[in-house]
Design goal:
The complex is a heterodimer.
Chain A lengths: L1 E5 L3 H10 L5 E6 L3 E7 L5 E8 L5 E4 L3 E6 H8 L7 E6 L5 E7 L6 E7 L8 E2 L7 E6 H12 L4 E7 L2 E8 L2 E7 L13 E4 L3 E6 H7 L8 E6 L5 E7 L3 E7 L2 E3 L1
Chain B lengths: L1 E3 L7 E2 L1
Classes of the chains: A mainly beta, B mainly beta.
Chain lengths: ~260, ~15
């Protein structure tokens, strides 16, 4: 028996919007720790890892570890039927091949339940090693989204370089080149407006902008984004989900042939 | 020309 009650149901709606274009089908894993997902895109170039900790739910009952295969496009269709202020409860019985999403309006005058068919997904779970990164950049998520969108109108790839001067996003295409440099800036009114650069050593890596733009669909989940870079590792683009956990996108770099 | 690496190159199966 599984029953997870999320008062801020809009979080789950936003999570689905953030990942449904990157991943078609995925197993949601439910354990005492929380509600989680790890999935790769169909090209096996990007990986998304989601964690919504059990403590973040108003009610969290998960009698035994359960993996539920869902088509994310179908799940998104169902969650779009929930209001932004609705409380969402996820329910499943042991051995059932369906999951139920229950939506309650804030004043309890409307209760809806949507039952979705589960699917068997033979997915590979990858071990993500703990790593020390050469550079970690925290910046406003809206700024990062703007840069990725702007650069993708010029080129297909972005070179992200971190030096003591700041973080530079560069692209080139048929019509020309573009460079955006963000310097560390901690003298701001609100902490989420700051750009903070922790650099152990300079690093420069190349990535496909198509994936970066896909990751920025998580922007509504968090005011800030944290980008971790090391020369021999995929980039990590992390959006923290307040009080609950995170959504992390890993993207393998492009390397010189 | 750039070669797109895959995630498998970095992360192993559990």
């Amino acid at each position: 028996m599984l029953e997870l009650r999320l008062v801020q149901g809009s979080l789950l709606k936003k999570v689905l919007e953030a990942i449904k274009d990157l991943v078609n089908d995925a197993n949601f894993d439910c354990s005492a720790t929380g509600f989680s997902l790890q999935a790769m895109d169909s090209s096996h170039v990007a990986l998304v890892a989601l964690l919504l900790r059990s403590e973040g739910f108003e009610h969290y009952r998960c009698d035994r570890n359960l993996s539920m295969g869902m088509n994310l496009n179908n799940m998104s269709k169902m969650l779009k039927c929930a209001g932004n202020d609705d409380i969402i409860t996820i329910k499943a019985d042991d051995g059932s091949d369906t999951v139920t999403f229950m939506f309650e309006s804030p004043n309890q005058d409307k209760i809806a339940d949507f039952e979705m068919k589960l699917m068997d997904i033979d997915s590979e779970h990858l071990g993500i090693p703990e790593a020390e990164y050469q550079a970690i950049v925290r910046m406003p998520s809206s700024e990062f989204a703007r840069i990725c969108k702007d650069l993708s109108s010029i080129g297909d790839t972005v070179v992200i370089s971190v030096t003591k001067e700041g973080v530079k996003f560069s692209t080139r295409g048929d019509i020309g080149t573009a460079n955006v440099v963000c310097r560390q800036n901690t003298t701001v009114d609100k902490p989420e407006e700051a750009t903070v650069i922790e650099m152990q050593e300079p690093v420069s890596l190349t990535f496909a902008l198509r994936y970066m733009n896909s990751f920025t669909k998580a922007t509504p989940l968090s005011g800030t984004v944290t980008i971790s870079l090391s020369s021999d590792l995929p980039i990590v683009v992390e959006y923290k989900i307040a009080e609950m956990g995170y959504i992390r996108f890993y993207l393998a770099p492009k390397i010189e042939d | 020309a750039c070669l797109q690496r895959r995630i498998f190159y970095y992360f192993s199966k559990d």
